[in-house]
Amino acid sequence: MDKLYFDNNATTRIDDEVLDAMMPYLKEQYGNPSSIYSFGANNKEQIKKARKNVAKLLNAEEDEIIFTSGASESNTTAIMNAVRNNPNKKHIITTKVEHASIMEAMKYLEEKENYKVTYLSVDVSGRINIEELKQSITADTCLIAVMMANNEIGNIYPIKEIGKIAKENNILFHTDAVQAIGKIKIDVKDLQVDTLSFSGHKIHAPKGIGVLYIKKDTPFIPLIFGHQEKNRRGGTENVPYIIGLGKACELILNDEYQKSEKIRYLRDKLEEEIKQNIDDIIIYGDIENRVPNTISVGFKGVDAIQLMLMLEGQTIYVSTGSACNSEIAEPSYVLTACNADVNNYSPIRISLNKNNTEEEIELFVRTLKNIIKNMRRK
Ligand code: PLP
């Protein structure tokens, strides 16, 4: 085993099948899909195929799918669209545990455009309170943005319930589904979301490609102008990456949900082994309602950054929070919002993928146990 990679909520390895599907469009079939001659125009058909797979995965219509550069762009587009389409409404509801791409947009709107933002609180397990959401709604609310699954603790949020509330109140509802896609089933019609985002690089497609789902007939103002994507997102289409993303969605449609069950089995085994072999630990998040691949765990008296570095020394890769924040040596804002005892039990995040094996889990637990024993001895 050359390395043990347990940081799949940060990013995933490109699947061989995905790469194989992309290669011809990087090397030989590089024509611009907007061209009239067939060398370019044929690529339009391939984009259509990819869009079909994405739409099928979400139970959406093909016209409701826009390709973007990633979920940060999709999130930003959805938020700016909601505010620009409702210039007289200056209130947004979100949570304290959203991804930075949502949080930073909220901060900007508060500081520069005089928006009032309600950040829903979370309990010790990271759950939101639907009553608080209902009570936060005002006649001035233009957007509710709640993630489908959290990147650090894996919690799954009650999107269907929120969708219903948003609809009843005629408020646009956006969900960031980056950490849910491929791990749990998503049906945009059932969930009643207006906009939804996800990213290729969390589902074994490349970095730099993502999706914005926008429900039919939702008013839309682009973030990037141009004629592509039916005037909704300018820029020459990233043909190979779109094809890669389409392939990754096709793989999920074919059998990945069953693989999710395999991942859940391995995650539960790993968690059980950690509990049995190492004392004084805390598992963070909503244990009963998490995506199947994630564990957030703290070990009493063990500094997570030191632990991560010690594991790295054994070519085992985990993270101390979300990838976007891990260079900042501050406690995770997600766990701080949960009122977690991060000083005594600083968290590492272990996130699995479909290629992990029982053998890897066993080796990981043995190594982890030894490292923690040594660290606690000092
Ligand atoms: N939202 C969540 C929950 C994420 O975990 C991430 C990536 O870490 C993003 C958004 C951003 O995705 P991208 O890297 O495609 O911009």
Fold and architecture overview:
With 378 residues, the protein is of the alpha/beta class. It folds into two domains: 4-12 and 257-377, Aspartate Aminotransferase, domain 1 (Alpha-Beta Complex); 16-255, Aspartate Aminotransferase, domain 2 (3-Layer(aba) Sandwich). The chain contains twelve helices and twelve strands. The chain has helices at 16-27, 38-58, 71-85, 100-113, 130-136, 159-168, 188-191, 228-231, 239-277, 304-313, 333-337, 358-377, and strands at residues 4-5, 65-68, 91-95, 116-120, 141-145, 172-176, 195-199, 210-214, 281-284, 294-299, 316-317, 347-351. The strands form three sheets. Strands 2-8-7-6-5-3-4 form a seven-stranded mixed sheet, with helices on both faces. It has a three-stranded antiparallel sheet with strand order 9-10-12. Helix 4 (100-113) links the parallel strand 3 (91-95) and strand 4 (116-120). It is globular, with a radius of gyration of 21 Å. 46% of the residues are buried. The structure holds pyridoxal-5'-phosphate (PLP).
Strand order of the largest sheet: 2-8-7-6-5-3-4
Helix content: 40-55%
Tally of DSSP helical segments: 12
Strand content: 5-15%
Q: What structural class is derived from the secondary structure elements? A: alpha/beta
